[in-house]
């Protein structure tokens, strides 16, 4: 049997991303010699079409449509599918390259993307581009904060549209969590759902496990929940999370 090689050799990495979105990340971990453990603590489901249809018909009134996740893109376009809408007069913005790529796959090519992939940087960029009084549509998840709406309220009319729901997964083998070398958190909700389960069951033990977080809000959630070893890559991508974990274990620190 071939011995594992690479900076993550022999290390088990718990990946909390929803199952349907985890394949590429699991592959990256394997390429570094690691043992990926799919653990979809978060489930994503689209909202009922009838609940949001009122916002689709008059969509032409919005000048901007902004997205802060690939999930937002996927479920928004799923909802409007078949409406034969034209986006020629709209302007678009995305929080990062993966979100922008999902938009490009749907025919949108001109997309405003900040150099730093987080909501704060996106807001800073939008404040320079949006004219006073312009209407903005923000398709989002049920647990996504209203940070963008709050930050732009003095400049634009932002309407939030919940296009998917984020819920804790069921029927997971939680014993796996206690046997892993590190956690990969891709959202604040993943942090919250995991710590909620262990609130009265060995919570102090999981808080000692290294937690690699995709970005600032997820990192903040991990710190607030009491994780003692929290790490975040300079670029907020899954690829850079894997590189960071590889460097961590290679250095033995």
What's this entry about, in short?
This protein has 253 residues and is α/β, with parallel strands linked by helices. The protein contains ten helices and eleven strands.
Structure in words:
The chain has 253 residues and is an alpha/beta fold. It has two domains: 12-41 and 170-251, Rossmann fold; 45-166, Rossmann fold, CATH 3.40.50.10090. The protein contains ten helices and eleven strands. It has helices spanning 23-31, 49-52, 70-80, 97-104, 119-129, 147-152, 188-197, 203-206, 216-225, 238-251, and strands at 12-15, 35-38, 42-46, 64-67, 91-94, 111-112, 135-141, 157-168, 182-185, 211-213, 230-231. The protein has a six-stranded mixed beta sheet. It has a five-stranded parallel beta sheet with strand order 2-1-9-10-11, sandwiched between helices. Helix 9 links the parallel strand 10 (211-213) and strand 11 (230-231). The longest helix is centred in the C-terminal third of the chain and has 14 residues, at 238-251. It is elongated. The two termini are 29 Å apart.
Anisotropy-based shape: elongated
Mean pLDDT across all residues, rounded?
89
CATH topology-level name of the largest domain? Rossmann fold
Strand share of the residues?
Answer: 15-25%
> How large is the radius of gyration?
19 Å
- What is the helix tally? 10
